[in-house]
Amino acid sequence: MGEEMVGWARRVAAAELGNVLPRRWAHSCGVAARAAEVGLILGKDADLLISAAILHDVGYAPRLATTGFHPLDGARFLRDEHGVDERLARLVANHSFALLEAEARGLREELASEFPLLDDPLLVDALVYCDMTTTPDGDRTTAHDRVAEIVDRYGTDSMVGRFIRRAAPEIFSTVERIEAALAAQPR
């Protein structure tokens, strides 16, 4: 991967989100900035994390929204139109406990069979951390505030509201694990 991949990912995400969904683009840029900070605990996978962070919401782009489930739509776009590294597509497909929402949408088997969850808990956790500690405008926030904001934005009884409340304990545990890993790094 490397810096070349990060630049490519930024260009693709900007082209798909920048003009049509500027707030989603701002969020993606904020998540990528967090990923650049968190990357130090990942070593050689830091650029993979940053690339996944900038691309994690690309499936919201109207031209890509075929199922209406952005993790799956984004991963399919990256795989089918760009032939990306399998690990990158799988990270995008499974970001922030997407399997739980896929289940509610009747897409769990489809998501799991096309894009199995990576067997790299630190990398998967790092992307959750970056996404769930970044506001829709790209600013830093706490995971608790982010979950509350998502529930407020979508509504308590919406599919997304129900999913995020169900995923919240796992999100909070994930954030704690990454914060502990960051704190253990030498200064």
A few lines on this structure:
Helices cover 67% and strands 0% of the residues.
Total helices: the number is: 10
Give the rounded overall mean pLDDT.
96
Order of helices and strands: HHHHHHHHHH
Outline the biggest β-sheet: none
Point out poorly predicted stretches: none
The tally of strands reads 0
Proportion in helices: 55-70%
Structural class: mainly alpha
Shape call? globular
- Amino- and carboxy-terminal Cα gap: 26 Å
* Radius of gyration, taken over Cα atoms and rounded to an integer in Å: 15 Å
Descriptive labels:
187 residues; mainly alpha; 67% helix; single chain
How would you characterize the overall build of this protein?
The chain is mostly helical. The chain has 10 helices and no strands. The chain has helices at 3-17, 22-38, 46-55, 70-82, 86-93, 98-104, 108-114, 121-132, 143-154, 159-183. α4 (70-82) packs antiparallel against α5 (86-93), α6 packs across α7 and α9 (143-154) runs antiparallel to α10 (159-183). The longest helix has 25 residues, at 159-183. The model has no long low-confidence stretch (mean pLDDT 96).
